[in-house]
Amino acid sequence: MERQGPLGKPLNIASRLLALASRQRPTPPFCPGGGPMAARPPQRVLILQSGANASVDYYLRPRLQRSGLEGAIVDLDQDPSGIDLLQAPDLAVIICRYINSSWLTSLNQARERLSGIVYFVDDDLAAMMADQGLPWRVRGKVALAYGRHRAALEPLVNEVWASTPALASRFPGGARVVPPTPCDSPADPLERPPGRVIYHGTDVHGPERLFVLSIAKVFQTIRPHIRFEITGDARLQRLSAGLNNVDVVSQTNWPDYLNSQRSRSAAVFLAPMSGGLTNASRAPVKRFDAARLGACGVFADTEPYRSAVRHGVDGLLAPMEVSAWVHAISRLLENPDLRLAMARAARDQIADRFANPPGLPFSGAGG
User: Fold this and answer.
1) Distance between CA 278 and CA 274 in Å, rounded?
2) Cα dihedral angle (102, 108, 112, 116), rounded to 10 degrees?
3) Number of separate helices (H) and strands (E) present in the chain
């Protein structure tokens, strides 16, 4: 029996795709070959997602709700033949990150009556496939859900939307920049929040997890009562053994994560970011995660946070040095009024964006 890899697909397919990607310098994902969008503005929108995820919630769902257009968000595992909206006129389809064979076939059959097909991406997927610093499971998922379908997807797409200018620049045919927008209203910061410092990074952020663990080691000596909460796995559990100020929590799916955080609060939220091509195209969405907890954020002094955070006003920026982050966190803990003022400033800015999300930026007459 053929071994199974990510998504239950044959392991050798992902292995071949990853081997190919690893031998090459990462390249832009693709050039859309479907021509311009229809001149008539779309009246309906169908968003395709691979399960409930942050990409849809931070970029597409708020814009769809703001647009007032008839629309639906559909999982790729649903049978396209059962989606009535796909038969409707003046329909634009937005593909979020991934696609599969059955939906490719249906979109190819429907393309002549569609207003257009948009491909949205918020990560450099080509770079992720080639990044040997990422877990094999992550790279394999990208290879199977994106890499194997790229050639078939390319001629169907009319335009590309990307989450940041850096990511948009990876597309040789150009891409429209679609910045993130919050998916929920931020919490009111507490004057006396729990003495908790949080880093919630997924499994693509292994170096950042270790970086925060190094910070926690210092705090165990200087402020042992301050607790650090880090998303991690069994390896991080082993590495944190003996650190009484560290709680390693398991990574969960996106809906569960959102539900669990909305009733919590924290003093400080951390958003470190190591170097590399994959991280170079990321958006500053950790600002939303911090505000959800009413926390003041400490962010890596690099893009995208350098352009998004007003240092000393709605958060702190720090170079990726342990001593600098220990100093920044200590500054916030020692100055509760400063921490509260910055948390409130961030809350106000994000609350305003949540209340006034942008629309769907279709080009041409629909833009």
Assistant:
1) 10
2) 80
3) 16, 12
- Dihedral angle over CA of 85, 88, 91, 94, nearest 10: 20
Report the CATH architecture of 6-179. 3-Layer(aba) Sandwich (3.40)
Q: Which of 131, 121, 132, 135 is nearest to 170 (CA)?
A: 121
Q: What is the pLDDT of residues 195-252, one digit of tens each?
A: 999 999 999 999 999 999 999 999 999 999 999 999 999 999 999 999 999 999 999 9
Q: Which residues pair with 247 in a beta bridge?
A: 229
CB distance 145 to 159 below 8 Å: no
Report the C-alpha gap between 78 and 9 in whole angstroms: 17
Q: Kindly report the pTM of this predicted structure.
A: 0.91
The verdict on whether omega for the bond into residue 29 sits within 30 degrees of 0, i.e. cis, is: no
| Fold exhibited by the domain 196-354 | Rossmann fold (3.40.50)
Q: In sequence order, which ranges of the chain are alpha helices (DSSP H)?
A: 11-22, 54-55, 61-67, 101-110, 125-130, 136-145, 150-153, 165-168, 206-222, 234-239, 254-261, 277-280, 286-292, 305-308, 322-334, 336-355
d(CA 208, CA 174): 31
By the 8 A CB rule, do 227 and 197 touch? yes
